[in-house]
Amino acid sequence: MTSTTEELLALDRAAQDLLFRAARTANAFTDEPVDDAQVRAVHDLIRYGPTAMNAQPLRVLLLRSPEARARLLPYVSAGNRDKTATAPLTAVLAADVDWHDRLPELFPHRAGARDWFAGDPAGREVQARFNAALQIGYLVIGVRAAGLAAGPMAGFDPAGVEREFFPDGRHRALLLMNIGRPAVDAWRERLPRLPYEDVVTEL
Amino acid sequence: MTSTTEELLALDRAAQDLLFRAARTANAFTDEPVDDAQVRAVHDLIRYGPTAMNAQPLRVLLLRSPEARARLLPYVSAGNRDKTATAPLTAVLAADVDWHDRLPELFPHRAGARDWFAGDPAGREVQARFNAALQIGYLVIGVRAAGLAAGPMAGFDPAGVEREFFPDGRHRALLLMNIGRPAVDAWRERLPRLPYEDVVTEL
Fold first, then answer.
1. What is the DSSP letter of A27?
2. Which of A119, A154, A155, B13 has the fewest CB within 10 Å, making it most exposed?
3. What is the tens place of the pLDDT at every residue in A79-119?
4. A18: burial class by Cβ within 10 Å (0-12, 13-18, 19+)?
């Protein structure tokens, strides 16, 4: 970090470090449990994050018991299996493709909004995936805000997870996330990040 | 917010409010400019947010001048046009579908990673959209961390924006975002958020 960054941000330095700079994706966790009150506190914070049409399509399935975890492991890639079996908590992060059914409550000032999307399941799925991914971004930050480490994992079989956990057919499994306190050897050296000039351009 | 939430989070209350609870999507901005140093500070913070395979597919095109803005407005939905014409800064947020070309540098411990994806443009596009959306989630938080307000907008013509600004064909326009200091009348009453029980379930 440059001193300029610290000075230019309204967020205090400790919070900058907690959420971004010192935070890391954890691959190993201590045995300390993550309880419901902590998960509720994370939700209570991140639910204010914006989504298009206030649709909030993210759904979170918590797997804690050995029995619940055992149902997930066959669909997890080999490299992610051990840490997923032993993390204090694993969340399956999914998008509800029937998010439009909640619009009368969530977007009440547009009375007909639900019906615009009723005949467009393909469009709903695109929006569900995009907005739920935004919310997963907020969730990563929220888990860190709780003093916990997130271990998001894309290496799994989404179709298998959907069959096993979402037989209603209205959810798409987007990501798995282990959550807990990082173990001593929870991560390797940080991978390089793209410089500003490769990400941001001005026309 | 319940007092429980505040107590259970490691992030201090002022930061909770700045990033989530008091923060709002802005629809009107003051004339105060957003300068490059502020945008660099936001990038310098959020670039640490995790992405699958450290791919970091988000690309940001800043439109500041009236000439640059005028090229965007025809593709913006009518309801978003005025605020986009007058915001201090508008960002076009896009995903680079050729993100795999950077893997030798960004994911160096897997020598062959780039080649796994070279023949799978459809799979790359899915991953580009998902990981860039995660990064847009971090960006919303980062803009707020700089004491600014974000005005993300999904109401625009992505194909038109891609033709106009990304003729290389390797970028997908995902979202527009106005950035600045909120005007006095920047937002209406906050829309309802889903309760915990409707979002989180435990198996």
1. S
2. A119
3. 999 999 999 999 999 999 999 999 999 999 988 999 999 99
4. buried
Contacts of A116 (CB under 8 A, 6+ apart): A100
**SS3 breakdown of chain A: % helix, strand, coil, rounded to 5?**
50, 20, 35
Residues of chain A contacting residue B143, judged by C-beta atoms under 8 Å apart: none
**How many whole angstroms separate alpha carbon A37 and alpha carbon A89?**
13
Size of interface A-B (CB pairs under 8 A): 250
Measured CA to CA, the distance from residue B120 to residue B33 in angstroms comes to 42
Q: How far is A166 from chain B (nearest CA, A)?
A: 11
Look up the ipTM and state it: 0.97
pTM reported for the whole predicted model: 0.97
The predicted model gives B156-182 an average pLDDT of 98
Listed in order, strand segments (DSSP E) in A99-170 are 149-153
| Spatial distance between the Cα atoms of B186 and A37, rounded to a whole number of angstroms | 34
Contacts of B38 in chain A (CB under 8 A): 8
Summarised one tens digit per residue, pLDDT across range B69-109 is: 999 999 999 999 999 999 999 999 999 999 999 999 999 99
Cβ contact A142:A46 at 8 Å: yes
Chain A residues with beta carbon closer than 8 angstroms to that of B37: 4, 8
